[in-house]
Each structure stands twice: as structure tokens, then as C-alpha cells.
Amino acid sequence: MAAPCGGTMARPLVQFASCFRRTAVGKTGFRRFSGTSLCRAAVQTERATESASSPWTLMAAVCLQRLPVISAPCSPVEQRFKQLVQQMELENSLLSDHELRLLEDAERMSRKQADNYDSDEENDSRDQDIVLAQDLEDSWEQKLKSFQPAPRVRADVDEDLSSAERCLADSLVLLAEQQVGGEKLWLLPQAQWQQGETLRQTAERALTSLPAAALAATFLSNAPCGVYKYKLPRAVRTDRSVGTKVFFFKAILSDAGPSAAAAPANAHFMWLKKSEMQRFLKPAYAMKVNSFILNL
What we know:
With 296 residues, the chain is an alpha+beta fold. The chain has helices at residues 2-28, 35-53, 76-92, 97-113, 133-146, 155-158, 199-208, 258-261, 283-290, and strands at 56-66, 172-180, 183-187, 190-192, 215-219, 226-231, 243-256, 269-272. Helices cover 41% and strands 19% of the residues. It is elongated. Its main location: mitochondrion.
């Protein structure tokens, strides 16, 4: 008989507890917070605290690439493969409209030269000037001979490291000369992070702050593609200033102004191929930069 009594006494207690919870929420106006909003608020608070108390100086740099303008020359293997593919496409292709017209013109000429040629068969084109397909080919051949393509290699421009029009068949990266401590170094354009802006906005500011650059870039992401960290010398290192963290953002050059295409001789920026960057960057910095620069 004890079991029924226990169940009878437990049921009112459960109902009383549920009524108490509903009453307490209704009277106090208690507001429920979702887990997403709580996590977002916690992350923002944590970031603000870290930025205020972090001993690391935050920097944002932009890896600006000018993509190839012309195709690179084919290697011997690529050239043989290209010829093979063209031969296969030619053998499997159908006749074009121009080729069909050539056959029709040849057939018409053969009928004219025959003894049983009847001029009434081509009465519809008697009063018109007939332009043969061979005549069109001859005119096209003359236009091709008079056409002069732009040179692929320009020694005067390719040697100018400050010109964005050098080495048109290669991908170029922008380097800027910047003051770091007591020395000037060649680096990717960078700027120090300021309170209230995102790291991408800092990278955009680093690009627009270049003197006489006049560059228009398309950023590929809001997230950095790499980070480089270095510590200050022990003589100047303190508890509040240990070193610097540089976050890299990738961008593609969409438009270069006239000042960027033909920069003065004393320009403080250079357009370099990946193989040329080793001469100007420090080894540790170059190793980090090379990890996310692709030869497109």
C-alpha cells in the first residue's frame, strides 16, 4: 500500500513546481537568451579584453597580385601536345560554312568549264557581283600581313621593377618599402590595427595609404590567409609590448592608375615575380609569404 501513496503525494508536488516556474517567469519578466547571442556577446567581450591587454601589436598586410595579362609560352612538351590535340580536333570536326562555300564555288567553276554548261541555272545571281570564298581568303591574308602584334617581351619595361606592366606573362606581387623600427624594409603593404575597425579594413587602409599608387583591388576574403609573428629585441621588450602579429589578406589588382603603370624612379614600391622576392625579403618573412602566393 506504500507505493500508491507515494505516487499520490508526488503528483501534487510536480504540479506545484511547474506552476511556480510559470508564475515566477510571468511576474519577473525573465527573458530567455539563445545560445548564439550569448556566445556572440562572449566572443566580442573576449576580443575587446584581449585587444586592450594583449602584449602583441596587431598589423594587417595585403598580398596584392597582378594576374598574368598574356599566356605564358608553351614548353616543348606542351607544344607537341597542343599540335596533337589540334590534329585530333581537325580530323573529327565538321566542315564550316566557309569550307562549304569553297566547295560550292569549286563546283560552280567546274560546271562553267564544262561543255554542257547552261547559264540559265544561275539566273538568280546574274545581276549581282559574285564574291568568291577564295577572294575573301585573299583579303583576309592581306589584313593578316599588315597586322603587327604587340611585343610579348619588352626589355625597357620588364627591367622597371616599379611598373605594373612588366612581365606580362607572369604573376606579380606588390612590395612596399616601410619603416620598421630603425630600418627600412621591403614588405607587403601593411598598417597597424586601430580600435573600431576590422583587420580587413586595416589591410584596405594599408593599400590606399601607399603614396602615388592609385590602385584598385578586389579582396578575396574577409579572413586572413596567413599570419607572421615576430618578437622585439630583448633590450626593448616589455610586459606590454612583446612583439607584432601580421595578418595577411589576399587581393587581386583590378585597375592600376597611370601613376602605378609608370611610377617614378624613386618609387617606394615594386612589382616582383615570386622568384624575385627572395632578394628583397628576409628569409623568415619570405618563407611565410611564399606559402600562400601561387604562380597563376
